[in-house]
Amino acid sequence: MASWEDELGAMERHLEAQRLAVLGSGRAPDTYELPDGLGPLPDGLRDRAETLLAATLALEGEVAGLRNLLGRSLRAAGQRPMPPPAYYLDERA
To answer: Hey, where are the domains in the chain?
Structure first.
């Protein structure tokens, strides 16, 4: 049976794998699911869990910012005028 200590470590590793994937330095990790039967979080691990939550929310904000930047870039690329077609004249004719 898993312990909260083990699961917090697994969550931290999973979050780091997600961060690397967002940065393009790794593949997206498989979905993480908290196992059943852990019981309540021990008070001694509350600070660690809150730090992990803050890091998760920070990564979520970073992903949202990157998504918005990509959207703006794609919209701007679609608004650029197309260059005029090239015309070549054969002066020998």
So the answer is: 4-78
